[in-house]
Amino acid sequence: MITTVVFDLDDTLYDEVEYCRSGFASVAEFLVYRASSISSFAVALLRRMDEHRASAEDIFDVLWKQFTAGNRKNTFNAALDELGMSYDEKLIGELIKVYRNHVPKIALPDDSKVVLLQLSGKYTLALLTDGFLPAQQLKVQALGIEKYFNCIIYTEQLGPNQSGWKPSPVGFEKLMKTLNARPENIAYIADNEKKDFIAPNKLGFLTIQIIRPARIHTKSSQPPCFLAPAFAGVNLSPRKRGARRGGAAARYKIYQISKLPAFLARL
Questions:
Q1: Per CATH, which fold does 4-15+107-265 belong to?
Q2: Residue 152 forms beta bridges with which residues?
Q3: Which of 9, 77, 136, 206 has the fewest CB atoms within 10 Å, counting from its CB?
Q4: pLDDT for 83-104, tens place per residue?
Q5: CA gyration radius for the chain?
Q6: Single pTM value for the model
Q7: What is the DSSP secondary structure assignment for residue 10, as one 8-state letter?
Q8: How far is 30 from 1, CA to CA, in rounded Å?
């Protein structure tokens, strides 16, 4: 019997691409203000705020083009090269800090809000998320979701050099201890097959992959035990439920988070 439902954050409860968009906008604004402060009053704050905004939009467009083209590791370097702006490693470090520390302009989708409201009265809810701090904390605050969870675990706090990040089991073990929950009573909902489900599968959680259309991590290596957009042909025998224990794939998939409450009710 499932009594505890644990959520991942990015691309599970909201579209992470919206955070990326917000972050690049903040970086673009920072670069414009930095340029204007260096040239001081010579450009009179780029003459007008309208021109300031247009310049920020131009920088954002180049950043976004690099990102959507698949450049996820050297986005800032490539964008500055394209813009013809000089830079060094110190500036790149400043841009990364701006990106991670900005207050994101993101909102919780209506379907996720409805699901959290529905589940909070029936299950113990928890959140377990990878990512740098304070970025993950700022996301949670911007989405306004702290109130739904009995426990929030930021894996960045669990060890140096990302050692607590998934696929490490440390966060999941801490969660079980904090909530005094047994693995067979826990459902874990996340998106990234490369790392999200390895530890909870080994521990014996029920794992469910949410496939959001705008998700960043799109590759899938193997099919789940059950594709669950309509709940047809459900087989929850012990053998079926344990078929992928220890693997990287989730045991089930859903394509709309709105399907989750009904799916959990059938388990």
A1: Rossmann fold (3.40.50)
A2: 127
A3: 77
A4: 888 899 999 999 999 999 999 9
A5: 21
A6: 0.84
A7: B
A8: 50
